[in-house]
Structure formats: structure tokens, C-alpha cells
Task: structure prediction
Amino acid sequence: MPIKKSAMKALKQNNKRAISNFKVKRKVKEIIKESKELFGLKDKTALAKVKQAIKAIDRAVSKKIIKKNSGAKKKSRLMKKVNLLGQ
Result:
């Protein structure tokens, strides 16, 4: 445990940010998982779910919760599956 007052405050801030970041990452993962399930069913509503996923990924990247290249990789993989679904 920190002893100094500023270190205690920093610890509280870090914990609060970690919880917030975890929620955003969890949401991104859940949306991606849901869209992948729709791909498995060959459902046409998968495109709407992919748009939600891309929006969530972009938001996480802009807040620097996930790295830029990781976000690009996730979006690329989703779009590759969308294109396969269209064929």
C-alpha cells in the first residue's frame, strides 16, 4: 500500500481507469463474438452487428484503450468475414 497521499490518489485513479478500460474491452469482445456467431448462421443481419463492432473498436482506439494496429487488425478480420458472407 502506498504511504504518501499522492501515491494513494494515483492508486485510486489507476484502479478506476482499469475498471473503465476493462468494461470497454469487454464490450468490444462481446460485440465481435456476437457478429461471429451471426456469420456462422450465415445471417444477413451480421452486417449491422459488424458496423456496431467497428464503431466500438474505433471508440476504444480513440481513447487509447486498445492500440491502433490491434484495432485495425480486428476490423480487417471482421470485414474479411463480411466479404466471404457476401459471396
The chain has three helices and no strands. The CA atoms of residues 47 and 60 lie 20 Å apart.
